Every structure is written in C-alpha cells, then in structure tokens.
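ok trying again, last paste got cut off:
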Amino acid sequence: MFFQRINDSCTLTEGMAKRLGGDIAEAIYANPEFEAVAYRSAVLRCMSCKEQSACKELQASHDRLDKAPAYCQNW
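nice, full thing came through this time. structure:
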C-alpha cells in the first residue's frame, strides 16, 4: 500500500508538471543535485494531499492546464 501511494504520487506529480508545460526528467538531468531533491519533496507533498482522486480525474480529462488547481501543494 505504501509503495503504491509513492508510485501514484510520482505519476500525479509528473503528470501535473507535464500538463503545466514542465519536464521533470529534463530538469533533473540538467541539475541533478538540486532537482532530484526538489522532485522528492514534490512527491512527498503530493502523497499528503487529500485531493488525489480529484487530481487523477483532472489529469484524465486534460492534456494541458494553464494553472494548477488551487488544492495542488506543488504549483
């Protein structure tokens, strides 16, 4: 269960970044020491979010977003 939550939060974090025009893998590749820590922090914030179901639905229905939803703790 714990590892599934980590996996789900990674997917949501990466998905939100992509929909907002970001590329986490590219950022980590460009500056691994800083961005890997920032990514880990973003995933942990996502794990604590009570709106993951809403986020999954939002991402399933939108390929692109102009801004993150108000409940998103990462953007």
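cool. The chain has a mean pLDDT of 97. DSSP finds four helices and no strands in the chain.
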